[in-house]
Amino acid sequence: PPARRVCILGATGSIGRSTMEVVAHLRKVDPEYRWQVWAASGHRNLDTLAEVALSADPVPRRLVASCAQTHARVSGNGESPLARFSGEILAGPDALVRVATDPEIDVLVAAIVGRAGLESTLAAVQEGKRVALANKETLVVAGPIVRQAAQKSGAELLPVDSEHSALFQCLGDRPDDVEKLILTASGGPFRDWSTEQMRQASVQSALNHPTWDMGAKITIDSATMMNKALEIIEARWLFDVPAETIEVVVHPQSIVHSLVEFRDHSVISQWSPPDMRLPIQYALTYPRRLPGVAKRWNRQQPCQLDMLPADRERFPALDLGFEVARVGGTAGAVVNAANEVAVGLFLDGQIRFTDIVKSCHQVLQHHQFDASPTLADLVQIDQWARRETLRFADGL
Ligand code: NDP
Ligand code: MG
Q1: Taking burial as the number of CB atoms within 10 A of a residue's CB, which of 171, 211, 264, 330 is the most buried?
Q2: How confident is the model at residue 227, as a pLDDT?
Q3: Who's near 349: CB < 8 A, 6+ residues apart?
């Protein structure tokens, strides 16, 4: 069978490691292709990158150490387990674009966290690759640019984010009959906390997600519900719908991953136990469905599904998300940058939990809005928003 070569950027992370498992599984169950991880990247955790790569079968051909400072260590002495890797090792952020656009790869799994994933994801889209998109921040920052690039190159942009994968699976072939796209939100660890309790929330309690095991940044985003805000913006660009078409409901069990309401008021949802390997596998094999590696619904256990209205007062991130989805332009880049910086400050113990969304609001309000920015404009305003967030946090 023909090879299916996968490039995983962010292979040392939560999504990256799950993707390694999915590819190993597909290699066993898919008679149509010979799946393999062709290239993989890590940033700071290069020992993990080496471990992950050396335990894959076959071992990837190329590794990227995207953190430029590690260049010396990568190419130098034999201390790092990377020294046992006999393939090619590239270093620095530019190398991400090089492997993402390599003619030898068929699929890019964009699993870097944050705006750092933008250039490599966009480059693969421009190259016409299939892109399995976990890195939602890319669409938040530059949704229209990525969409246009995909239209021009014919690239397939397939969601890995579980909600968007669910919407994609529910939409079927009648997208014109859609009334609402309804994103589910677990509500995170503070679903029932008062604003005052959240003001006092510790880093530890915010990192303690009830239903998903994920990287630190998205776990904090889930607690503030900025994650849902980013997902509203992601849905706006991924499905090319106005912000008004999107809604959010709270579903604490994280089993129903999202729902589509049609014109006749029929609602179709997708459900499965919370396990990212399912949307990852579907993005890789679409439109085919192959034997799964993800957890299976156990019918011997009682299963309860709650759907609750979202509380926009206690979680002001939601209105922020709708606002940014509505105005577009530079707003996404600004809010995303402010959020990345504010989450970092919170994790470092420098600001309060409730200051994260407050900072995003503040910086959004003070920026010079541009309705149709170029990529260069977005990169610049991202840097401005990072500085502005630090300045605002300093004054808190
Ligand atoms: P992790 O923090 O677990 O992993 C992040 C990955 O990105 C790591 O490989 C890390 O490398 C790499 N990385 C970090 N900073 C940079 C940088 N500046 N340049 C290049 N690479 C970098 O995150 P997750 O796997 O949880 O999330 C990845 C993306 O997927 C995010 O956009 C998130 O929103 C999205 N997502 C995640 C879900 C989940 O279940 N985890 C669900 C839905 C979406 P290293 O570790 O070596 O430093
Ligand atoms: Mg999600």
Answers
A1: 330
A2: 98
A3: 203
